Amino acid sequence: MESEQDAKKLVSRCMLVKACYELWGDGCSSEEMHNNIRQQPQSLYKPHLASHKSFRVTVEGFNKSLRSSDKLAKIESLSYLPFDGPVNLTNPDTRLDLIEYYGLSNVDVPDQPYRVFLGRLLGRGCRELIAQYSLKQRSYIGSTSMDAQLAFIMCNMAQLRPGDLVLDPFVGTGQFSRLVVFSPFWNKLAQAYPCIVICSILVSAAHYGAHILGSDIDFLTLHARTKPTRVKQKERSAHESILSNLSQYGLQGRYLDVAVVDCARTSWRRAPVLDAIITDRQ
């Protein structure tokens, strides 16, 4: 990447990436990693360890839990680096992560790691959105509601941006979804919009700043009058609706409307007004 800012922007949108690092050194053993770090030019790390820069060093084992005493010893092994700034465990200017990789198998985990890395943390992915937008917290859900993680992945595939106009043509159950394959209108629309993806994700699209439209043939689903899918819930509450889901996250201003539409006899205008079509059917 051309700059550190580009890396931060990219990882901040990633759902499947945990974190992004600037690699300072690595090796098949701790000794090899330290030798690799010593060979790096001081211009790589000295600006980030200056007296006006606070720092923090953490040690993580991938597929293995490490004892606190072992972590402390590994941190002290980095004493040759010019740490001139103060320690800040809460919000440091520079965070270094020493990561030891012990493989993927939980059986017969080796005593020594297969590989060791030291890197400066640049940014983290947006995996906290998985819990924030969990279906367990959602006001209105159905039996076919899309998992939050998959929803955000599909939004990234569509490359949604603030101000985009997005349509989910099967916002409810999508029971007539396969008719889209045989509809000449939708085939032409697919050619006009190459970013057609598969996911029922109006809430996730609104999170990224898109204005959202929805349609479905099922009137009861659009108006939250179907049978509840939550355990021990016998009736739908009066406030349950697609709009209530958006209001729950302060996104109601990006909701345009939903309509009862049979996609076999679609009433949508044949004009390039949409930026993306996102649905959970194919």
Automatic annotation (TrEMBL):
GO cellular component, one term: tRNA methyltransferase complex
Keyword Transferase belongs to the record: yes
Ranges of residues in domain Ribosomal RNA large subunit methyltransferase K/L-like methyltransferase: 137-176
Domain tRNA (guanine(10)-N(2))-methyltransferase TRMT11 N-terminal intervals: 1-127
Molecular function in Gene Ontology: methyltransferase activity
GO annotation (BP), single: methylation
Sorted UniProt keywords: Methyltransferase, Transferase
InterPro entries from the UniProt entry: RlmKL-like_Mtase, SAM-dependent_MTases_sf, TRMT11_N
Keyword Acetylation among record annotations: no
Name the UniProt record assigns to this protein: Uncharacterized protein
